[in-house]
Specification:
- The chain is an alpha+beta fold.
- It has a six-stranded mixed sheet with strand order 1-2-3-4-5-6.
- It starts with a strand and ends in an 11-residue tail after the last helix.
Amino acid sequence: MPARLVDTGPILYAAPGQKLVQRNCRTWITEDGRTVSVVTELPADTGMSITNAAEEVRAVLEATWGVGCRIVEHYPSPGDEHYDEQIRPSASIRWHRLSTDALRPELGPELEMTKPTAPAAGGL
């Protein structure tokens, strides 16, 4: 049984010395109680990328969902749509590519049905 989608909406983060950045985020809870947050970066988004602000994104999501929340970065179509999971085996964060075919059975059809929206015009 796929996870249950429990939250959709923006998250805000800022790296030191950078402006506030808004990204779309969808969070699921799995059958065993774990959370999986998929953070989407749209081609027109400005500000520090999810990859470069990995620590800040993790801090925001863990403040909401607790330590251990799985974080998946999503770059949608057009172009090279892909999902990368944030992995922290030690002090540094790495990214591991996930296939849509692997995520779909885990997260269900909402993985692709919920279309991210662009931040409001004018930025933050």
